[in-house]
């Protein structure tokens, strides 16, 4: 049980009666609108975004780093057979590129170069036939 203050019993008009202080934050219009919006969102089941932008970025970086580590581990776990197959595949691709370059060079060559090459071949064939 609390003792009641003396000023309640006295009806002295000279005494200043205490009043509850007004909280300026709660009386502001912005605060009231925000509080109303939060209550409506809570009723709907929508949670406000509590995470600051920096925390979101850091979490995204962590996720990316974990994914990258998993990919690196998967590459390290490749068997010898897979490594050999990859090497062969790369060699075949290089050979195909070289063949394509040679074909393009031959197709783009002027007519006189083609004729000269044909003459050389026929000359060599004739020389080989004479030697035999």
TrEMBL record:
Keyword Coiled coil belongs to the record: yes
Pfam families, alphabetized: DUF1151
Key word Coiled coil present: yes
Compositional bias segments (type: Basic and acidic residues): 53-79
Keywords: Coiled coil
Source organism, top-level taxon: Eukaryota
Record region (Disordered): 40-79, 101-132
InterPro entries referenced in this protein's UniProt entry, alphabetically: FAM107
Name of the protein in its database record: Family with sequence similarity 107 member B
UniProt organism field: Myotis lucifugus (Little brown bat)
